[in-house]
Structure formats: C-alpha cells, structure tokens
Design a protein that fits this description.
- Pfam families: IMS, IMS_C, IMS_HHH_1.
- It comes from Pseudoxanthomonas broegbernensis.
- It is found in: Cytoplasm.
- The chain has 13 helices and 13 strands.
- By secondary structure, the chain is of the alpha+beta class.
- About 35% of the residues are buried.
C-alpha cells in the first residue's frame, strides 16, 4: 500500500500583549500611556501583569508588588479582575476556533493552534495568523503577537520575537540558521540555574549546544538533557492537544503576616475546600494530596501523600493535607508566608469513586487547574 507522508505541521502560537494590563488600559482611557501594574498593593502581593510602560522600569509579572513600586513609583496599581479577563479570553478563543478545532490553551492569554489543515480558506499559516491578529484587534480592541513555525517549540519562540503587536515566521528551511546564534536561555525550561550549568560547560548558544553528544547531555541532565538535544535541532513532535486531561488542581493563599506551622490548619482546610470544589469539575479521579508551604525566607517546600483510596470528600482531603504538616521538619520557630493544597495524579475512574458529602464552599479562592 502506498502511504504518503503526513504534511509538515503548521503551528501558530498566539500570545496576547500584556494581557491583563492591556484590558485595564482599554477599559479605562485614563490609564493609556501610563505604567500600569495589575496587583493588589501590600507587602504580600505579587504582580499579575505589567503594561509595557511599566516594563521599561524593570517591572515584571510575579515580582513582589513592593519591589515594583520601588522600581516605578509613578506606577498605577489596579487590582485584578479575573472575571473580566476570562470573558475576553473566551472571546479570543472563539476567534481562534473559527480557523481550526485544534486549539490548545496554555493560559488565559496564550494558545497553540495547528493550522496544517485550516478550517478557513486562507492560503497559508501566515495568512491565518494575520487574520486572527486583525480580528482580535477589531473585536476586542487589544493586540496579540503570533509566531508561525513547524512545531510548538519554535512557534513559542517566534511569538516573542516581535512583541508587542508583532508576527514572526520561521519556515522549515530557516530553522537551523535561526536557532544557531540564539542564547541557550531562549530555550523554554532553561532558566538562570540551568543556563549557568550550561555556560560552565562552554555552552552559551544553541549552536554550542548542538555540538554536545546526546549521551553526554543525558548523563549530566537526565531526560531534560535529551530534550535539550532535540531542541537544539529544532525537533518537537508534540501535537497540539485541544482537550488535555487535568493533571493537577490546587489552591494557595499568602497570609497578611507570617504564621507558625501549628497555626496553619484553618487555612489548609479552607484551601482544601476550594481545591475539592475545583476538582469536581472533572470526571477524573485524583490519587495524590499535596501540601505546599513557603517560608518567610521564600523557601518552598512540598509534601505529598498517595493514600490507598483517593480522598472521597472535601473533609477527607482537608484531614490528609493537615496531616502532611507532620512531615515538615523545620525548626518550630519557622514562620510561613504561603500555604497551598493540591490534588495530582489524576486518572480515569475505573470505578466511580463515592463523592461523600456535597461540599459547596462558594467560589474557589486562588484555585488553579493544570492540564
């Protein structure tokens, strides 16, 4: 039988520009052209987003709000309104779905699209990306940047190339020439620590990395070494997955003041209720309970437990999470600024797990779902 090779993939990565801050500037004309920081004020708050005007001062997402205020005293702080951001995100998603069913959301503000066989009659992936960006601007009043490439890894790098409000295309014949001079830090997953390890080996660019044998990278970095080997050659076989199964669900909260370990039970129980409520939105069953703690010195600890039977109620989840405190061996005087409760190890139910009581704590606070 004569089998034809599948056509090369055409992948688009769409990334909204300074999304939360841009929504705020769109809806409040007085904020346009000003450095906007989306965050609650206070010693415990972190930056959710920063406008490009604020980024010029070094303000970045996930930065402590107090540091952002020091870097940019004239910044306008706006409390986040996630309901509004989610509504705009749904609007953008509908624009993408007009061109392909293969849309993989990564967050509210970015997604991958596979347009190898687009729904629309546009002649190329570049034309699809241009049409999506134009309609986002027309329908939402916001801008988006896009990268077009043969795979997800390259498309994500490309979408960041001409930000904001830009488009960059990497064609298959251009991959090696494009990657060779790039700093290794441009590879997703290569953060400050990994970059330092690679530079200690004389690897500063992707071209340098390409010269390292697979066996050597695996010996030093395990499975991530194999991923580095593939990325250096522009290889990424991951498909765009529009319906990814839930992998983990979690909720966390930062305290107004640091607390000792034995004072955390009420917060753990509330967060367990939030996590349970979020987990009920999936048909999959979680096996592992996770407790996350952050000390006053910003040290992060996680403790996990996989019981013989998955937790069957919010109360059972709370008891398991509270019990995980006993596995924290730090000095008694240690204080904690953040606590989180999560569920992971989701699997398809072989048998229906009894749900126990139907606990409805109200809208989850700080809950997140990873797919």
């Amino acid at each position: 039988m004569d089998l034809q090779a599948a056509p090369p993939r055409k992948i688009i990565h769409v990334d909204m520009d300074a999304f939360y801050a841009s929504v705020e500037q769109r809806d409040d004309p007085s904020l346009r052209g000003r450095p906007v920081v989306v965050a609650w004020r206070g010693a415990r708050s972190v930056v959710c987003a920063a406008s490009y005007e604020a980024r010029k001062f070094g303000v970045r997402s996930a930065m402590p709000a107090v540091r952002a205020e020091r870097l940019c005293p004239q910044a306008v702080f706006v409390p986040p309104d996630f309901a509004r951001y989610k509504a705009v995100s749904r609007q953008v998603r509908e624009i993408m779905l007009a061109h392909t069913d293969l849309v993989e959301p990564l967050s509210l503000d970015e997604a991958y699209l596979d347009v190898t066989v687009p729904r629309s009659a546009l002649p190329s992936a570049t034309a699809v990306a241009e049409a999506i960006r134009a309609r986002i601007r027309r329908d939402t009043g916001l801008t988006a940047s896009a990268g077009v490439a043969p795979n997800k890894f390259l498309a994500k790098i490309a979408s960041d190339w001409n930000k904001p409000d830009g488009l960059f295309v990497i064609r298959p014949r251009q991959v090696e020439r494009f990657l060779t001079p790039l700093p290794v830090g441009r590879i997703p997953g290569v953060g400050r620590v990994m970059r330092g390890k690679l530079e200690a080996l004389g690897i500063a660019t992707v071209g340098d990395l390409r010269g390292m044998p697979l066996e050597e990278l695996q010996r030093r970095f395990g499975s991530f070494g194999a991923a580095l080997y593939r990325r250096a050659r522009g290889i990424d076989e991951r498909p765009v997955e529009p319906d990814q199964p839930v992998q983990s669900v979690s909720s966390e909260d930062t305290f107004a003041q640091d607390l000792p370990l034995d004072a955390l039970a009420p917060a753990i129980r509330q967060l367990a209720a939030n996590t349970w409520q979020a987990a009920r939105k999936t048909d999959r069953v979680a096996r592992t309970v996770v407790l996350k703690l952050k000390t006053a010195q910003f040290r992060i600890l996680t403790r996990s437990h996989t019981p013989e039977q998955p937790p069957a109620s919010a109360g059972e989840l709370a008891e398991l999470a509270v019990a995980l405190r006993d596995r924290v061996a730090l000095p008694a005087q240690t204080r904690y600024r953040l606590v989180g409760v999560g569920l992971s190890g989701f699997r398809e139910p072989e048998e229906r797990v009894p749900q126990g009581e139907l606990f409805d704590p109200g809208p989850p606070m700080g809950a997140s779902v990873k797919r």
